[in-house]
């Protein structure tokens, strides 16, 4: 450890009283010797050195000719005051360590950012502040041993540069400070600064940013420039971009940028979009791309909740190899649009994961997800666990819309509620694979409107609301070599509902199951639709009515002679059983004529007896438009 120094100061002079010619005066003893002790005067200290570092004989300190204690060094590791004990009288004095520091004048510092550094042992000098973006690096060739340098391109990887833009009233001092008016100015300045370097992150504090023009996240119209720009907030409910209704969008991606928009919310109205991606017009360096290898994550877009808006939450043209994840849209008329606007480029190769679009307060003709190949082809996209809710009062709404030459799409594990059309595939679209886990169908709605070809539709449960008349599938594909496939689909038709379908073209209908008290049209059951085996209890009446779409076994106990009317909603080849019980001797009668029964000679009804049960086996022939009663069997239990 370093040694402390003692003595040599104005307070370090020994004054001793002496009598001169009978008068007591203060004397300055010279050449007095002193031993060195700890402050408690209990232990003598050794290893005492001179100011120059030489060992003092016998560890004794000798005063000068004027009685001043010279500078000396205490023992190694000893700290604090010590005592000098006079070797002749044992009188002791307390000695404090010397303050050996040299004051630094304030005039040494000339500018903000100047540094004080050691240039040699016990020597300090000023190093002037460097330029923006420079870093401090060790350099033994410099007098100060360090200097400011500009980082070289490449080399050792470092974290991206980060600039903080503080919202008005946030209480945070950032690299850029917003005043609550046209806050895009400061945000764009920060993005421009990063774009002029190696890219990096613009970090927005919590608070509200008022936008009078779009925030521009732009590349260089050159896909070979490796640079990523991040715009990141503190979470959708903490960092809000308030988008003025008179501007095109809140955030615009363009010029083949690699952009990442994370952790913020946008509020839109009028014709303004939340986030836009605009295709590059440069050939060939920009590749017609707006953004690629990009991401939009943990973002929320809020609309006016009144159907007056006409913009999109996300309107992404010519976006390529990107990820849209954990995006929530509420209160808008339109959700997300993915488009292709140039015939020389096919965007896509993207994933849309865990997104939620609620346009339940939107206007007419809105769409939750729209894939629009205006020119070129949006293709090779996967949409996973994406939910959508429509406005029950709005007309023309579509949850999943595919227009132009959109193709090679995969939809998995998605829910849809209250849209006029769940999935709409245009005549030029093809190879769209739609897999819904649940669809709620309102009155007048269609689950799948298929004008394209080679598409597949599956649905874990299509729930038809009470009293709703719906179209399960409307197929208008005319390309016989590439039919659409509908199924497996499970339908539950609630009370008073009717389920229809248009399968007149090339549709392959398979594995459709149905249940519920509603009516399922015969066309839905062709060719392999299956009604779960169950017993349907009929109502005893003068004429007993049967809805053949509800089951395959019908049971009734008659209390008088009864007529079984022609069953409704039959399917060609359908087979049903009647279990007829009675509490007396009554003879059932089967109605005859078109759509009714023809009874074989061995199956003629007979008078029943109390406690007996007659079972009639019937099969429907569509060409004959008759139910053929094949057999009658009587049991007593």
Structural class based on helices, strands and sheet pairing: mainly beta
Task: Give the CA-CA distance, first to last residue.
Answer: 108 Å
Helicity level: under 10%
Q: Order of strands in the sheet with the most strands?
A: 18-21-23-26-29-32-35-37-39-41-43-46
User: Can you identify the CATH class of the largest domain?
Assistant: Mainly Beta
CATH architecture of the largest domain: 3 Solenoid
**CATH H level, superfamily name of the largest domain:** Single-stranded right-handed beta-helix, Pectin lyase-like
Overall number of structural domains: 4
Compact overview of the structure:
The chain is an all-beta fold. It is built from 1 helix and 55 strands. The strands form 10 sheets. A 12-stranded parallel sheet has the order 18-21-23-26-29-32-35-37-39-41-43-46. A 6-stranded parallel barrel has the order 28-30-33-36-34-31.
């Amino acid at each position: 450890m370093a040694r402390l120094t003692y003595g040599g100061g104005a307070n370090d002079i020994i004054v001793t009283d002496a009598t001169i010619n009978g008068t007591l005066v203060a004397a300055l003893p010279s050449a007095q010797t002193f031993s060195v002790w700890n402050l408690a005067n209990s232990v003598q200290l050794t290893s005492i050195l001179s100011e120059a570092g030489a060992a003092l004989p016998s560890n004794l300190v000798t005063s000068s000719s004027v009685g001043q204690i010279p500078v000396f060094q205490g023992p190694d590791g000893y700290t604090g005051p010590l005592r000098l004990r006079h070797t002749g009288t044992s009188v002791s004095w307390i000695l404090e360590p010397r303050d050996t520091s040299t004051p630094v004048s304030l005039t040494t510092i000339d500018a903000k950012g100047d540094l004080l550094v050691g240039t040699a042992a016990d020597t300090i000098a000023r190093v002037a502040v460097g330029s923006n973006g420079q870093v401090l690096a060790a350099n033994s060739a410099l007098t100060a041993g360090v200097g400011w340098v500009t980082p070289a391109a490449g080399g050792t990887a470092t974290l991206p540069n980060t600039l903080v833009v503080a919202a008005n009233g946030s209480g945070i001092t950032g690299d850029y400070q917003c005043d609550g008016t046209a806050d895009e100015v400061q945000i764009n300045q920060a993005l421009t600064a990063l774009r002029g370097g190696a890219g990096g992150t613009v970090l927005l504090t919590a608070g509200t940013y008022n936008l009078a023009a779009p925030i521009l996240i732009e590349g260089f119209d050159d896909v070979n420039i490796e640079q990523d720009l991040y715009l990141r907030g503190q979470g959708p409910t903490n960092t809000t971009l308030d988008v003025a209704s008179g501007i095109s969008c809140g955030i615009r991606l363009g010029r083949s940028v690699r952009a990442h928009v994370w952790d913020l919310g946008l509020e839109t109205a009028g014709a303004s979009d939340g986030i836009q991606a605009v295709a590059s017009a440069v050939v060939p360096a920009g590749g017609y791309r707006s953004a690629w290898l990009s991401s939009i994550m943990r973002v929320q877009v809020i609309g006016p909740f009144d159907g007056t808006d006409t913009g999109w939450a996300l309107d992404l043209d010519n976006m390529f190899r990107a990820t849209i994840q954990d995006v929530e849209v509420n209160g808008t008329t339109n959700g997300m649009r993915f488009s292709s606007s140039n015939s020389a480029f096919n965007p896509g190769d993207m994933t849309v994961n865990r997104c939620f679009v609620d346009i339940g307060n939107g206007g007419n003709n809105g769409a939750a997800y729209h894939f629009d190949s205006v020119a070129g082809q949006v293709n090779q996209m996967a949409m996973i666990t994406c939910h959508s809710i429509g406005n029950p009062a709005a007309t023309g709404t579509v949850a999943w819309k595919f227009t132009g030459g959109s193709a090679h799409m995969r939809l998995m594990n998605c829910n849809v509620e209250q849209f006029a059309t769940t999935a709409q595939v245009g005549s030029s679209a093809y190879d769209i694979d739609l897999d819904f886990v649940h669809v709620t169908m309102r009155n007048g709605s269609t689950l799948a409107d298929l004008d394209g070809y080679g598409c597949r539709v599956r649905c874990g449960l299509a729930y038809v609301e009470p009293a709703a008349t719906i179209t399960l599938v409307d197929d208008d594909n005319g390309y016989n070599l590439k039919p659409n496939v509908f199924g497996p689909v499970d339908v539950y038709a609630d009370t008073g509902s009717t389920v229809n379908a248009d399968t007149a073209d090339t549709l392959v209908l398979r594995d459709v199951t149905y249940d519920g008290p509603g009516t399922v049209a015969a066309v839905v059951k062709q060719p392999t639709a299956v009604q779960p085996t169950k017993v349907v209890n009929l109502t005893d009446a003068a004429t007993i009515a049967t809805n053949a779409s509800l089951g395959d076994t019908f049971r009734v106990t008659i209390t008088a002679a009864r007529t079984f009317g022609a069953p409704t909603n039959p399917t060609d080849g359908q087979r049903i059983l009647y279990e007829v019980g009675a509490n007396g001797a009554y003879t059932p009668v089967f109605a005859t004529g078109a759509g009714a029964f023809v009874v074989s000679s061995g199956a003629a009804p007979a008078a029943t007896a109390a406690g007996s049960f007659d079972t009639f086996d019937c099969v429907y022939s569509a060409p004959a438009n008759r139910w053929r009663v094949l057999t009658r069997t009587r049991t007593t239990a």
